[in-house]
Amino acid sequence: ASSSGGVSTRLLPTHFYPAAANKSRKMGCSTSRNADVASAKLYVPELKELATMLQTALKDNFETVETEVTECIDLTKWGCAAPGIGGNCRIIDVGGVPNLLDPKYHKSAIFQLPSVAEQVGLKGAYIYGACAASHLVVGVNAELMPTEHISKKCRCTKYSKVLEDGSHTMEAYDSSEFGLLGNFVACDGKTTPVVKVRVKKRKGEENFVSCMRKGLAKALEESKVNVDGAKSAQIGIGGVFKVVSGKIHGHVMPDFKKTVMIDGPEVEEWLNFYEMGPDLTCLSVFLSGDPAKEKQESKEDFGLDLRLEHTHFFSQSKKEGGHYHFDKTPDDVEYVGYFLPAPVVYRVDNAFARERACQADK
Fold first, then answer.
1. Residue 252 and residue 184: Cα distance in Å, rounded?
2. Quick one: 203 exposed, middle or buried, by C-beta within 10 A (0-12, 13-18, 19+)?
3. CB 269: neighbour CB atoms within 10 A?
4. Which of the chain's ends, N or C, has fewer CB atoms near its CB within 10 Å?
5. The dihedral of CA 20, 23, 25, 30: what is its sign?
6. What is the mean pLDDT of the chain?
7. Are 161 and 137 in contact (CB under 8 A)?
8. For position 19, what pLDDT does the model report?
9. Are 305 and 352 in contact (CB under 8 A)?
10. Between vectors from CA 304 to CA 301 and to CA 305, what angle results, nearest 5°?
11. 9: pLDDT strictly greater than 70
């Protein structure tokens, strides 16, 4: 293992090949069954400080903004597999968009949540977040809303897929396997003090998550805090929030495209978008920036190739679920959520770094 600039990197064995997988499966240009795992420290503000930062971040975007430090409610009532989101929190970014864009990775980029938990040093963790379903489980490409307490053998995960007629549906997902990419929080699932956020009536242009993320980035720039060893001080947040009222704009991925896609307009056209809600439980992971990058706008410093926000949602009353984009009814929307900062972010099996290495070998 080696570390520099607050970023540690090590090779750990992975177990993201299903038991029935062909032993000669290839992951891109490498046949290695080890995944590169890197990590970087994050800034962890006191909860009262975080509540103030989020209040400031949201006040210009929503007419009503309330933030406070309080005990987390029992999130099993919102359809989660654990009552809380506290205890040994860590953020995890697995795989990446290149696994989705290129068909050569569709069958091989398969991961297991218990293995990911072990890789980040929290065996048996409660894991929630946003990722792609395994096509080996569902039969097609699909969205996944993972919420699973591994050690307690409690899984409330759902998946959403596009049907042949272009409509969508959501069902229970009885597996720890996921595909392609994922953004998660791993923790003990304990009920602890959290920051509660309640907003109503959007008056700005930002969605709920982006508004918080960008507001935290701005606050960090102004405060000029430092994290020992990290290239830049960044905050990573995990949380669960509810769309109490209003409609949201979300997407569900259709089945795989058989040709290589270019990220951007081609992917946007390929996705299926729907209006859904209200009464949606949202599993959210976001970061103010990449702590492994000194300058976030740098095109030459790739840092950990982190996805800075990713939120998936599911309904407890309807067959609705997918990837959150923004609300469609600003006058009617209300969000209520519970959030905690994490002290570290882990990068597992970085697909972007693999692609750069493949290009360099050509």
1. 19
2. exposed
3. 8
4. C
5. positive
6. 90
7. no
8. 29
9. yes
10. 80
11. no
215: β partners: none
d(CA 1, CA 244): 46
Q: Are 242 and 339 in contact (CB under 8 A)?
A: no
Residues contacting 314, CB < 8 A, separation 6+ = 79, 145, 158, 160, 170, 280, 281, 320, 321
In SS3 terms, 45-56 reads as: CCHHHHHHHHHH
In 3-state terms the chain splits into helix, strand, coil percentages (rounded to 5) of 20, 40, 40
Q: Do the beta carbons of residue 43 and residue 235 sit within 8 Å?
A: yes
Residues 213-241 have pLDDT tens digits of 999 999 999 988 889 888 999 999 999 99
Q: Which two tokens mark 40?
A: 């970087």
Region of residue 226 (phi > 0: left; psi between -120 and 50: alpha; otherwise: beta): beta
* Nearest C-alpha neighbor of 193 from the set 68, 339, 45, 70: 70
Q: For residues 43 and 220, is the Cβ–Cβ distance under 8 A?
A: yes
**Better pLDDT: 200 or 19:** 200
Residue 123 dihedral angles phi and psi, to the nearest 5°: -55, 135
CB 353 within 8 A of CB 38: no
For every residue of 312-355, DSSP letters joined together read: EEEESSSS-EEEEEEES-TTT-EEEEEEEEESEEEEES-HHHHH
- Is the model's pTM score more than 0.85? yes
HSE-CB for 230 with a 13 A CA cutoff: 23
Per-residue pLDDT of 90-119, as tens digits, reads 999 999 999 999 999 999 999 999 999 999
Residue 205: Cβ within 10 Å count: 10
DSSP state of 120: T
The residue assigned the tokens 């909860």 is: 47
Instruction: Please give the single-letter amino acid code of residue 225.
Output: V
